Amino acid sequence: MWDLIALGVVIFVFLVILVRIVRFALADADLTLLSKRGPKRSEVEGKVAWITGGSKGIGKELARQFVELGAKVIISARNVVDLEKVKAELLGKYPNAEVEVLPFDLTSDEEFLREAVKKSESFFSGAGVYYMVHNAGDDPLPIPALEITSQTILTIIKTNVLGTINLTRLIAPFMIKRGGGHFIVMSSTAGKCPVPGQTVGSASKFALNGYFHTLRSELIQKGIDVTVVCPGPIATKPLFKGTNSAEKPVTTDRCVHLIITAATHKLKEVWIANQPVLSVMYLTQYMPTLGLWFLDKIGSNRVEFAQTGGNISLMTLLFGKTKEKTG
Ligand SMILES: NC(=O)c1ccc[n+]([C@@H]2O[C@H](COP(=O)([O-])OP(=O)(O)OC[C@H]3O[C@@H](n4cnc5c(N)ncnc54)[C@H](OP(=O)(O)O)[C@@H]3O)[C@@H](O)[C@H]2O)c1
Fold first, then answer.
1. Closest CA to 50 of 58, 32, 38, 62
2. Three-class SS of residue 74?
3. Which UniProt keywords apply (predicted)?
4. Distance from Cα 171 to the centre of ligand 1, integer Å
5. Paired residues of 29 in beta bridges
6. Which of 22, 30, 223, 229 lies at a C-alpha separation of 20 to 30 Å from 131?
7. Residue 120, Cβ neighbours under 10 Å: how many?
8. Are 138 and 155 in contact (CB under 8 A)?
9. Ligand 1, atom 8: nearest CA belongs to which residue?
């Protein structure tokens, strides 16, 4: 009798472990995020979401899904024609949608940013921004660390870090005055672990993680939430010119579904990536010695093959065939 119970327990534990392993192998996001049941409409409906970089890629899809969930949306980018096109598409699909276009350049001086914030606060009868989605970003093509110019460094840091932080400084007081607000920050896998070929992009995303986690600790008691989103490859564009043997990207609509899920469940940091990128993130976070060893091993090949159109999938870089080129 006891033997049978013990056997039953062993089989049960084995099955639980097996299910978890399979779940992790198929995961496209961290397991906390995957345990949530999708976006909460009640957290979004009627609120204003200001999305930077709303003219294409992830930002454009963020605008669509926020509208679908009943939010009033402001979209920003530099190119006003692209923004108007997105607005027209949204109104064609959702005739009752409330969408405003607010073009501006994140690298502008403080006065321009202050003006943009003032405008954002004036839309929708002065309802005020609740979700500030810092999505605009400068993602340079991979380049060896020692070849990057000081001008490129300046542009990346000004767009990804300085512009984003300054906008935050300027809009947060309005949110606090109203009693609440939520920053959704598009960081990256490159904000959690080294991504060879993206030294400055990685530095900019690490900076965002540091700034926004600290900001939350200062302002959460005043009603300000922060969700830092760290995606791996997302299918907004080919990862590198001519290099398609890379990791399988997460689709843009799935990525955005997960971002809004994370924000409406008030998660502090989430990771969105298919395997094996997700495993590398877990490894680097929880077993950094092993994770950093792995990245050191593949780093120089990744940079070289990203530039010449070679196969840059992690497994190929690790287990040989590194000289192979894609056809
Ligand atoms: N796609 C991925 O695989 C991936 C992976 C990890 C992280 N991310 C992050 O996710 C975010 C969105 O990525 P994405 O692939 O959707 O980007 P994307 O397709 O390149 O779009 C970037 C958006 O940002 C705007 N933008 C760029 N520079 C700007 C500036 N100086 N001022 C104002 N707006 C500016 C662009 O419009 P204009 O050019 O008209 O200004 C565009 O709307 C980025 O922060 C990126 O770093 C993406």
1. 62
2. strand
3. Oxidoreductase
4. 20
5. 272
6. 30
7. 23
8. yes
9. 188
Tokens of residue 89, six digits: 């598409």
Provide the residue count of the chain.
327
In a domain, 168, yes or no: yes
**Which sign, positive or negative, has the C-alpha torsion 234, 135, 39, 268?**
positive
Domain that holds residue 233: 27-281
Q: Is residue 68 part of a domain?
A: yes
Is residue 304 situated within a structural domain? no
What span, in angstroms and rounded, lies between the C-alpha atoms of 126 and 254? 32
Instruction: Report residue 287 as tokens.
Output: 């077993």
CB 267 within 8 A of CB 225: no
How many C-alpha atoms does 307 have within 13 Å on its Cβ side? 13
Measure the N-to-C terminal CA separation of the chain; round to a whole number of Å.
62
Query: Ligand 1 center to residue 16 CA distance, Å?
Result: 40
The count of domains in the chain is: 1
The DSSP code for 325 is: B
Q: What whole-number distance in Å separates Cα of residue 141 and Cα of residue 123?
A: 36
Question: Which residues have any ligand 1 atom within 6 Å of their CB?
Answer: 52-53, 55-59, 77-79, 82, 105-107, 135-139, 159, 186, 188, 231, 233-234, 236
The structure tokens 């345990």 sit at 35
Among 76, 77, 81, 51, CA closest to 65: 51
What's 190's domain CATH number? Answer: 3.40.50.720
Integer angstrom CA distances of residue 170 from 120, 176, 184: 11, 11, 16
